[in-house]
Amino acid sequence: MTDLTDLTRLSASALADALARREVSSVEVTSACLDRIAAVDGDVHAFLHVASESALETARGVDARRARGEALPTLAGVPIAVKDVMTTRGMPTTCGSKILQGWVPPYDSTVVAKIKAAGMPILGKTNMDEFAMGSSTEHSAYGPTRNPWDLGRIPGGSGGGSAAAVAAYEAPLATGTDTGGSIRQPASVTGTVGTKPTYGGVSRYGLVALASSLDQAGPVARTVLDTALLHEVMAGYDPMDSTSINAPVPGVVEAARRGDVSRLRIGVVKELGGEGYQAGVRTRFEEAVQLLVDAGATVVEVSCPSFVYALAAYYLILPSEASSNLAKFDAMRYGLRVTPDGDPSAEQVMAATRDAGFGPEVKRRIILGTYALSSGYYDAYYGSAQKVRRLIADDFARAFTTADVLVSPTAPTTAFAFGDKIDDPLAMYLNDVATIPANLAGLPGMSLPSGLADEDGLPTGIQVLAPAMADDRLYSVGAALERALEARWGGPLLHRAPELTTSRKEA
Ligand code: GLN
Is this structure's pTM higher than 0.85? Predict the structure, then answer.
């Protein structure tokens, strides 16, 4: 029997088991999450939109089907939060931007369609940096999300809302997207688990594009197994996405259940983890690597010399693609329209709308990208960045001849305070120094908690990277490491997070 006293504390896999045994109903689980959101989200602000009615309606439907004895998907009845970058039919989708305020998409993204087909109630849409540009959610037009570990600190970004919702026990599962680290970095600073699948592993259809050659959707959860269960729901070939991979989904759930690293060769990336990384981040990382050795893995050091150029190349490729992708927000088709006085031309309406609708970081990147793509500069900037991308892929290929997976700290620091980096774009960009190489090469990566940094007592994460379509290896390593770490901690890391003060209202 599962302990059902507080349903919000249970893992998705425990909830799925209890639901299947009919010890609990989806309406009860969904209501518990909605109550928790009502109690703590005033402080956390993980959600931009809460969909109580439709979530309960889905829950009632699943309960009725289960009562009839229908065979249901594993996660049927388990609630989920969806990042606001994914279109949801009939439910607002703003991407954290004023320019999409009031837009209600007429269709579901493939990821959302799969979640619905799996019978999972959608609790609502989570906060994010505007158009997924940022590492702190401070760039959301609707105000930042706060880190449940310390409400004065950022929850990471761009998917800070999803990570915080999961860490604050508002939802057992959430979706994210990762273009340069937006699933993994928030996971690292909130003590949660997040995976960026292989590029092409999860459909991009219906994700509002940031940089199409880098974007990838993935799962966020509190345990490695839960992350795998959601990964399996989200992944798979989709003819609606021309870069979707037509191959079987890697056996992520099976790998997460096994959690075995014996005879596995773990490569520590020399270039990720030295100068600029907080001492406590490095210490927890080194201890985690030692635990993998104790569990039977061998460790080798690998060098990826081109990684030092990854950040620079990314900040040419991403703005170039983003400036082109965001051109469609022209006041004619979606959301906001600002009409200047007098008899404005269409061009003046577009200019006024884009000026009022986009925030400063989005404008910065549109200008950068338009410049990088302009005639005469294209080869010097975009062309050179593409060459760096090739070198990075080559570095990975070489490293994977001596190692089965690569590891590094996920992010250089723990959660920083609001305002710390907002006026210094380069300092903000450096949060993704360890996560960006995998996006440039299209490879899968996971972040899972490695512990609390000594200097500030805040969570930090370890990143695991694997070759394309070997996403299952992330889960083998992740589950083995999680087991070893939890044995050391005497339970999940999140159990050490402070109680949110507003949770008293729950009583
Ligand atoms: N923080 C990175 C950026 O600002 C990553 C964003 C992302 O992965 N969506 O571009």
Answer: yes
Decide: 86 and 206 in contact? Cβ < 8 Å: yes
Task: Give dist(CA 300, CA 268) in Å, integer.
Answer: 6
Reply yes or no on whether 188 is catalytic: no
Specify whether the CB–CB gap between 345 and 116 falls below 8 A: no
Give residue 452 CA to ligand 1 midpoint distance, Å: 24
Q: Which of 179, 183, 362 to mutate to test the pocket of ligand 1 (most atoms within 8 A of CB)?
A: 179
What gap in Å lies between CA 231 and CA 249, rounded to an integer?
9
DSSP3 helix / strand / coil % (the chain, rounded to 5)? 45, 15, 40
Ligand 1, atom 5, lies closest to the CA of: 180
Checking DSSP bridges between strand 298-302 and strand 265-269, what pairing results, if any?
parallel
Q: Which two tokens stand for residue 139?
A: 């760039």
212 is catalytic: no
Q: Answer left, alpha or beta for residue 96, where phi above 0 means left and psi between -120 and 50 means alpha.
A: left
- 412 Cβ partners below 8 Å, 6+ apart? 276, 277, 278, 281, 430, 431, 433, 434
**429, 311 contact by CB (below 8 A):** yes
CATH architecture assignment, domain 9-307+389-496 = Alpha-Beta Complex (3.90)
| pLDDT, tens digit (0-9, with 9 covering 90-100), for 315-338 | 999 999 999 999 999 988 888 999
Q: What pLDDT digit, counting tens, does each position of 421-462 carry?
A: 999 999 999 999 999 999 999 999 999 999 999 999 999 999
pLDDT value, residue 503: 46
Q: CA 72 to CA 312: how far, in whole Å?
A: 47
Q: Is the peptide bond before 158 cis (omega within 30 degrees of 0)?
A: yes
CA angle 440, 449, 292 (to 5 degrees): 85
> How much of the chain, in percent, has pLDDT values that exceed 90?
95
Q: In whole angstroms, what is the distance from residue 316 CA to residue 318 CA?
A: 6
Average pLDDT over residues 408-429: 96
Does residue 316 contact residue 491 with C-beta atoms inside 8 Å? Answer: no
Q: Answer yes or no: are the C-beta atoms of 34 and 59 closer than 8 Å.
A: no
Backbone angles phi, psi at 118, to 5 degrees: -80, -5
Ligand 1 site residues (CB inside 6 A) read: 132-135, 158, 177-182, 210, 318, 432
For 497, phi then psi, to 5°, come to -70, 145
Q: Given the structure tokens 């799925």, which residue do they identify?
A: 16
Distance separating alpha carbons of residues 464 and 461, to the nearest angstrom = 10
Of 83, 98, 196, 421, which one is the catalytic site residue?
83
Q: What is the mean pLDDT of the segment spanning 463-469?
A: 98
**Quick check: 96 and 131 in contact, CB under 8 A?**
yes
